[in-house]
Amino acid sequence: MNRRAVLMAAGAATGVVAGLAAMPAIGATAPAAATSGARAVRVPRTRAKSVTGTAARTVQADFPVEHVGVSWTGPRRGASIRLIGQDGSRGEWTALQPVCGAGADGDAGDPAKNVSVLVPADGAAGYELQLPDGATDVRSTAIDTVNGPSKEVATAAKAGRIAGVEYITRAGWGADESLRFKPDGTENSPQTYYPAQTMTVHHTAGVNGDPDPAATIRAYYYLHAITNDWGDIGYHYLIDEAGLVYEGRYSGTDGIPAHDVSGKMVTAFHASGYNSGNLGIALLGNSNEQPPTAAARQSLTRLLAALSAYHNFDPEAAVTFVNPVNGVRKDVQMISGHRDWLSTECPGSTLYGDLPALRKDVAAKLLQPHV
Known about the structure:
Blueprint: H1 3-13, E1 19-22, E2 38-44, E3 47-52, E4 58-73, E5 80-84, E6 94-95, E7 114-130, E8 136-144, E9 150-156, E10 158-162, E11 165-168, H2 170-173, E12 193-194, E13 198-203, H3 213-227, E14 237-239, E15 245-247, E16 265-266, E17 278-283, H4 294-311, E18 318-322, E19 329-333, E20 335-337, H5 349-353, H6 355-367
Helix pairs in contact: 1-4, 4-6
């Protein structure tokens, strides 16, 4: 029996029918008619205005701006933003808190200097940026994933489960799959698959108490896929403060998020230089001063335990990661934080300080009859 079959059997043993369990799509309204085994849902179209270079420092949009994505190369500190209200008023300057250095394993330059930020804008008309001296490759995007005209998309009538861990599919959170493709129809970042070696925990460094996590995930998707030119969202999974788990980077249609049917893991863009074979899970929100909610922490533990069971990982092991693309090696814990790989505050001080306890909790979960 292969690992995929073992994982699904674990789910069945818990009384879960492996594959699907009833759950509504997030941020979407189903029409009256729906096909058997699938349904049509309506999701707001993402609207965006992107600019580069010096033009990226002041932007006004012809739609309510719900998020602003900013990327640059260079110093991480000293950047700030102020929002322009619909009445033309200027808000206070607010420091930008970089999420982390991330990108493809083949990215040139120092990944610690590749900065990416997503900030809420609450329906602003535009924004102004101040960036540190030496910032180059500046790109900024006004994003609206809430107010645009809706489109109809097909999604499974039920959400998936992995060994009892329920997750919201990409269609369920409203992923626009066309964002993965270039204007000529070719895929911007085709999937590559390698055996999983380790798992890395992130936080998005966004706001806590997010009223619409699915809309925020759609904004991250646009920021990563288009503004950063990664071709897709950078994480394999995301978890919101209510403990809901979301499928991240596209990995085919075999029903196992982040993996192909053989059990190999799709390469994502969450730890530049160390992506291939490294599974990334991001908690929505900011864990620098406030710990994750109990629900998010519980879901993170269960998801890490399910994935550990699937890959026969020891959650408390120390391992040597070897990037199959370029041979780069790094000694890390099986469950690490992003700052263990790159110079970053991610996954926030409180979550990072909790990692030793998290590893123990995941290991204890594996000793239970079912993860």
